[in-house]
Amino acid sequence: MVDPALSKKWLYWLLFLLLATALFFLQLIPLQTTPSNWAMPDLLLCLCFAWVLRRPDYMPVLLIATVMLVADMLFLRPPGLMTALVVIGSEFLRARVNVMRELPFMLEWTLVAGVMLALLLGYRLALIIVMQPRPSLWLSLTLLLTTLAAYPLVVAFSRYILGVRKIAPGEVDALGHRI
After folding, report:
1. How far is Cα 129 from Cα 148, in angstroms, rounded to an integer?
2. What pLDDT digit, counting tens, does each position of 12-61 carry?
3. 175 C-beta neighbours (distance < 10 Å), count
């Protein structure tokens, strides 16, 4: 007999993998042939952080690391650098889930903005240290701003379309265990 809670987790793990695959596909399609002066939002990062803050049990570290490592390979970033930064950022947010449950969305958005800014600074600093070419500062800042602007939309999509909501204080599973 299959545990319903476990099957629901597996369903959301599979859903995250499907969404990540769709985002990879959409980002790799050549929609324009000239380079742009601004960057599209990193919807995968938004989805990862939104799900970690709402249902950390739906986002195990190994799943985050695997998907982000595949993203590093597909988007020709230094392998493992963004993966490590996203894992550190998601674990930072995961440690604050209990506090964030009762706080309004604006504070959550501010915390996520701080984590995304730290990711940007850490990424650029690591590239500077190893003397790798890095994207222009303007492009990095537009990526940060568009990703921050897209975060509320990703949260709304996750909540109202996919049903990934915050765990209420004192919520229990089907067996009566605290979540």
Report:
1. 26
2. 999 999 999 999 999 998 877 777 778 889 999 999 999 999 999 889 99
3. 8
Q: How many residues does the chain have?
A: 179
CA dist., res. 49 & res. 43, Å (int): 10
Give domain limits for the chain.
Answer: 4-29+36-161
For 64-103, what is each residue's pLDDT tens digit? 999 999 999 999 999 999 999 999 999 999 999 988 888 8
pTM, rounded to two decimals: 0.90
Per-residue tokens: 57? 């049990």
Q: Each residue of 31-61: b (16+ CB within 10 Å) or e? A: eeeeeeeebebbbbbbbbbbbbbbbbbbbee
Taking phi over 0 as left and psi of -120 to 50 as alpha, with beta for the rest, 104 belongs to beta
Tokens 């793990």 found at: 13
Q: How far is CA 167 from the centre of its chain?
A: 18
Task: Please state the φ and ψ torsions of residue 47, each to the nearest 5 degrees.
Answer: -65, -45
